[in-house]
Design a protein that fits this description.
Belongs to the EPSP synthase family. By secondary structure, the protein is an alpha/beta fold. The chain contains 13 helices and 23 strands. Strand 12 and strand 13 form a beta hairpin. The longest helix has 14 residues. It is globular and about 60 Å long. The two termini are 28 Å apart. Bound molecules: shikimate-3-phosphate and phosphoenolpyruvate (PEP).
Length: 426
């Protein structure tokens, strides 16, 4: 297995222009496909998760003109439902943002489809989405284990109505349902059961649907109504914001390592909830400055925090390694769904943090990290989880050499992460 040895980095300084947001790139590709007119997306992320969405769209006959070098794509909108009367098998890797929305988009169209992915995708639940689509008349079968991909979808144009969806495991199910709602035969009311997790991702969905011309009535995230007669219309040009989750590694590097780092592409104007990662760093003692389109961070004397991080599940992993350089313990709460992401992130993070010497308590839905003055070198297993590879790189910034196993796993969302980190390392 490949490994990357990171020597201590004495200081970070500089500017990072962020790659496009994964969440926004995959939503934008689907919305541009469903809209009338063609859409030019700029700053599209180039990573595995986006490639899986693009491959699926190609298989489904969607036309686009992709200039990979320029991170720009022009998508020919269908002006309505995807894939009428086709048969196709789609391989979606481990991209939740492709699997969940495409399952919904295909279930409400017409044709026969198989949706599958890598082994971990087959362990990531999708039952709540399937259960929500069933009352509308969607026929979806589980090909291996009940509640999990691969799925066989036999689609027959669906009408609207009222559905319930369980929001307690992943917000992506609700996102999927919201995005396809305007394509149903009638209006749709969605009631959310259970506590809705990862809520800010729903704001990304609603904000982007609005940009493509569809309004959703949001009753306090407990129910949503999408009136019939609305259609997605291309906004013409759409600039994909920088990825706020990817920004977290560089902002934390500055907080830990000294110097000043500015990330460009996210700021106060951002749609992404993960921009609030910078507020957590500020609460820990880092110096943070905001602009509409940038966040700048500098070192502070860091202290541990005890916070509910349900709203920033991805960036919260960066807090877990930042906590190693703070004074006092840090507790990251309400993160049960870390267990159903790229790996069981609660167990994986606890295991790897212990390897470097931290005292860690792994709860059912929380992690408590007690830093140690005596960090030690470790080979960090990454479990095919890009975020574990990226957040453990922060050890080097804190002066502790570290070896990252399978560093190539960052390709899911950030293929050149380690080069970008090197570019600000002094
Ligand atoms: O909608 C999205 O773009 C995402 C939602 C979150 O997932 P959950 O809603 O499953 O927590 C997040 O972790 C994921 O990386 C992207
Ligand atoms: C949870 C993640 O990915 P996915 O979109 O596959 O859910 C992630 O990127 O951290």
């Amino acid at each position: 297995m490949e490994q990357l040895h990171l020597s201590p980095i004495s200081r970070v300084d500089g500017v990072i222009t962020l790659p496009g947001s994964k969440s926004i790139s995959n939503r934008a590709l689907l919305l541009a496909t469903l809209a009338s007119g063609s859409t030019r997306l700029t700053n599209l992320l180039d990573s595995d998760d986006i490639r899986h969405m693009l491959n699926a769209l190609t298989t489904l006959g969607v036309s686009y003109d992709y200039d990979r070098g320029a991170a720009t794509i022009e998508v020919e909108g269908l002006g309505g439902r995807l894939a009428r009367g086709q048969q196709a098998e789609l391989y979606l890797g481990n991209a939740g943002t492709a699997m969940r929305p495409l399952a919904a988009a295909l279930a409400i169209g017409s044709g026969q489809f198989v949706l599958t992915g890598e082994p971990r995708m087959k362990e990531r639940p999708i039952g709540h989405l399937v259960e929500a689509l069933a009352p509308l008349g969607a026929e979806i079968r589980y090909l291996e284990n009940p509640g999990y991909p691969p799925l066989a979808i036999t689609a027959a144009d669906l009408g609207g109505g009222e559905v319930e969806i369980d929001g307690s495991i992943s917000s992506q199910f609700l996102t999927a349902l919201l995005m396809v709602a305007p394509l149903l035969g009638g209006s749709l009311t969605i009631r959310v059961k259970g506590e809705l997790v990862s809520k800010p991702y729903i704001d990304i969905t609603l904000g982007m649907m609005a940009r493509f011309g569809v309004e959703v009535e949001n009753r306090d995230y407990q129910s949503f109504k999408i009136a019939s007669g609305q259609q997605y219309v291309s906004p013409g040009d759409y600039l994909v914001e920088g990825d706020a989750s990817s920004a977290s590694y560089f902002l934390a590097a500055a907080a830990i390592g000294g110097g000043t780092v500015e990330v460009r592409g996210v700021g106060t104007d951002s749609l992404q909830g993960d921009k609030h990662f910078a507020d957590v760093l500020a609460a820990m003692g880092a110096r943070v400055e905001w602009g509409r389109d940038f966040i700048r961070c500098g070192r502070g004397t860091l202290k541990g925090v005890d916070m509910d991080m349900n709203a920033i599940p991805d960036a919260a992993m960066t807090i877990a390694t930042t906590a190693l350089f703070a004074e006092g313990p840090t507790t990251i709460r309400n993160i049960y769904n870390w267990r159903v992401k790229e790996t069981d992130r609660l167990t994986a993070m606890a295991t790897e943090l212990r390897k470097v010497g931290a005292l860690v308590e792994e709860g059912e839905d929380y992690l408590r990290i007690e830093p140690t003055p005596q960090l030690r070198h470790a080979e960090i297993a990454t479990y095919n989880d890009h975020r574990i590879a990226m957040c453990f790189a922060l050890l080097a910034v804190g002066g502790q050499p570290v070896t990252i196993l399978d560093p190539g796993c960052t390709a899911k969302t950030f293929p050149d992460f380690f080069d970008r980190l090197a570019s600000i390392s002094r």
